TrEMBL record:
One of the Pfam families matching this protein, by short name: Barstar
Lineage: Bacteria, Bacillati, Bacillota, Bacilli, Bacillales
Protein name per Swiss-Prot or TrEMBL: Ribonuclease inhibitor
Gene3D superfamilies per record: Barstar-like
UniProt cross-references to SUPFAM superfamilies, sorted A to Z: Barstar-related
InterPro entries per the UniProt record, alphabetical: Barstar (IPR000468), Barstar-like_sf (IPR035905)
Domain spans labelled Barstar (barnase inhibitor): 2-88
Length: 90
């Protein structure tokens, strides 16, 4: 199973988070200010099985504020919509 690790210790900005996800999952360019765009990419372009693990999430919350919760929420929603896509927060 493929795995994407998001390390909260390394994520300094929301733009960096989106860029990292785009590059790692080979997404087309999308409007990273629109959480629906992230959801659409996660449900249309990922190759499953895939697990997305967000490590040190609390550090992301400290740096990114509620935007980290919004991104995590859209990732959770996508995982519920796509068989073989898992999302974990640690």
């Amino acid at each position: 199973m493929a795995e994407l690790i998001l390390n909260g210790k390394d994520l300094q900005t929301i733009e960096q988070l989106h860029q990292y996800v785009k590059e790692q999952l080979d997404f087309p360019d999308y409007d990273d200010t629109n959480m629906d765009s992230l959801f659409n990419c996660l449900t249309e372009y990922v190759t499953v099985p895939l697990t997305i693990k967000w490590l040190h999430f609390n550090e992301s919350l400290n740096r990114l504020g509620q935007r980290a919760n919004f991104v995590a929420g859209r990732m959770r929603d996508a995982a519920k919509s796509v068989d073989g896509l898992e999302f974990q927060v640690e």
